[in-house]
């Protein structure tokens, strides 16, 4: 039985409810009157439920899809402005005891190089990332209680936060590690993590069990209920995601929104972010083995519908996607992207030409961070290295309140400009710096509150004089 408030995976992600939703959506895909009503509701910017959003996903009417794209774009502008937050993944270890059939880290893969970074190696990685200009990381690790116990993850987080190379600093560490216990989530919270990210991979239980035939990750309920345990452990920023390509996208989309509705209903705060990874080629993984790949059009439609369905939830696109695809989906609601990512263990500090097959998947966007920053600005976006909310304690519902009260232009906007200025001073090449300084001048004018505007001007000036780390 479907129960949004239940703490049991199979009740808050009810297979029956998803199947009903998909039938309802299919039956109404040409019901333009209903579709118009749903679009009108979405314009109120309070989101859509999984049934409404699924009808829009099923709709194939070109004009309506255009309207949805337009609305997604407007909502992104209203809630997030033209800022795009930058981050990079940091792979700590690819030791893994699971048997995930889409991931080259699966335990049976005997020829992949297994690596686990020492604290010294982590230091070298972090310095390399700081030297590019990164301030925000997402740490990644396989699941292996012997090689990668929680103590190792906690020690690594401590190491990462402790390193200050030149003007560099990692100010926010998000964590993407396997589902764990309330007690471990509490420890992660105490270690000062930002978002806890865990991809569901697929919401379809049967497919989930087949795709995870062995290892602790096989347990669908334990994995699906992880975010409730994380929240019980005090982590109020959690990041959802499915790996598109494994199962039918319409099923996944409904499941994803049901999960978001569940978190909101039980904990009073929805997911902080949603990621939309698509399966990629990797060491012994051929994405064509999976039948449910989605093309770029469907991918864009999913992104736009996530934006209109959960306006307060950030949306993340990684370097799994090419520059072209990223360009297509940025205006549809993406708020965070990674740049210059390496998906191998130790990939940032090692010499470019070194032989290595420890990567988790092939990246499509291989540009440097400076190239990505330059490109974003030319497209009219503000690359942001901001980590202020989390450091000011604006997490969970406090962050949502900022978003809901539309205070972004008085808070996130100046923070983005200040962190961009730091980037330009410390890491950018001449051309990027020139474009950036002009952009900052123009964007400062958009701050509505005169006092905030004046202070932001002063802080930006001070950054030019060598001061760092201002925030609202
Ligand atoms: N081991 C952790 C877990 O089990 O959740 C998380 C870390 S894993 C390094 C991060 C994510 O990469 C996985 O959740 C999965 O969705 C994604 N991934 C795995 N194989 C992939 C592939 N071949 N292409 C794209 N993404 C992949």
User: What is the CATH C level class of the largest domain, in words?
Assistant: Alpha Beta
Computed structural class: alpha/beta
Could you tell me the mean pLDDT? Answer: 95
Largest sheet: 9 strands, parallel
Helix and strand sequence: HHHHHEHEHEHEHHHEHEHEHEHEHHHHH
The unique ligands bound to this protein are: S-adenosylmethionine
Q: In what range is the share of β-strand residues? A: 5-15%
Number of strands: 9
Quickly count the domains.
3
Query: How far is the N terminus from the C terminus?
Result: 46 Å
* H/I helix tally: 20
What does the radius of gyration come to?
21 Å
The CATH homology group name of the largest domain: Aldolase class I
Shape descriptor = globular
Helix content: 40-55%
Structural overview:
47% of the residues lie in helices and 9% in strands. With 472 residues, the chain is α/β, with parallel strands linked by helices. The chain has 3 domains: 68 residues, no CATH class; 311 residues, Aldolase class I (TIM Barrel), CATH 3.20.20; 58 residues. Helix 2 packs across helix 12, helix 4 runs antiparallel to helix 12 and helix 18 packs parallel to helix 20. The chain starts with 8 loop residues before the first helix and ends in an 8-residue tail after the last helix. The model has no long low-confidence stretch (mean pLDDT 95). The structure holds S-adenosylmethionine (SAM).
